[in-house]
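[audit] Reproducing an earlier prediction to check determinism. Same input, same settings, fresh worker. If the tokens differ from the archived copy the diff job will pick it up downstream; this log only records the rerun itself.
[audit] input (412 residues):
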Amino acid sequence: MFYEREPSAQQRAIIEEPRLDIPLKVVAGAGTGKTFVLAHRFVWLVVNEKVGGPERILTLTFTDNATGEMRMRIKRLLRLNGCETAGDLWIHTFHSFAARLISECSYQAGRSPDLQLLTEIRQTVELESLLDGILAGDFSQIQVLQPPRLAQLGFDQPQQLRDLLRSLIQRAKRYGLSPEQFRDQALGASQRFWGAMLSPEEAWAIGDDRLIPAQVQSRLRAALADPAISQAPVDEARVTADLRKLYYQNLTQKAPRADAAEIFAHHQHIEEAIIKAAAAAYGLYQQRLAEADAIDFDDQIMTAVRLLEDERLGLAARYRGRFDYILVDEFQDTSPAQMQMLQALAHATELSVSRNGQTRQVPSFSRLMVVGDQKQSIYGWRNARPENLDKLLPFYGGDTVGGTAIFRPLTH
């Protein structure tokens, strides 16, 4: 095979790994040649006839620039190695792949083949217009707390509440949740939090029924550390961080409070009211999009996931049959919904993983290589989850399958 340059021993071992029945988890920092490895792995699979052709490999990246660079590089390498492409290469961002899937399957899914993708500006205008109407009381089905109640927690300007509602809606979409799923899961997480805070297992009364700050701090920390709360699907503990920050400060003042339970119940009511309002606003926004035969940027991934997970359509099996191998770059930047989409597309398997003489069974995927570095995640504002790299492929240094290493670090 023709290489652009002589690869390092580390790079060559990854590029030329012959086993396709195990995944490759490549941890690569900046300047380690990960794009070089991805492009050459693609071409090596084609040249050595490990796949049915270039169009049988799905390559996913995160930016249009990265996609364009990867496409040109791979096409050039294929030509240099005497390979012709019989069809269009499946080299896409997660969003452009989702758009292509939706377009191909719109008829089967009962969706319009002419779905309009809202520009970011129009998406902002549509959502802001809806939120303005909600705050003005134009929608009787959406109850927003009265300004005096919100002002108690620092929300004395309409823009502050609008920003919080928008944040909740966007987070729900990036987790691939419908309005109903968001409402139920966020309320569940809220109730778990406040249930922990109001638990009768410890007596709140100290001496003259006053609450001392140390107890409040301890209970707040314990409730927020509960995995059922901190790892809630909608990240509810972070979604309402602004609210929590305010009452945390109030409750940890030096002066003890005698009415802690009453204060907690009041805050729970406010938090749940905001969640319900956000869920209702989200549902109304989606209804407007459907009436206009439109989707927004986040809907692309969510719609693709819904289609792939619909067993009646059988699309997941069809697309898994279309691809012999999947390559993913910058995996640390995946959102929960993007990870769901990849899991639906990848070939599931179970592996016997060995390390230090110990063997464990691990659900995993074959014909897959992901490249990432948790230290380089740049899309936290879009709900990127660097920990997805370990959740998808929970393999680490020393892990092998039949003597073949799964975890591959790329260094300078």
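[audit] rerun output stored. Observation attached for the diff report: Residues 201-212, 233-239, 250-256, 377-386 have pLDDT under 50 and may be disordered.
[audit] end
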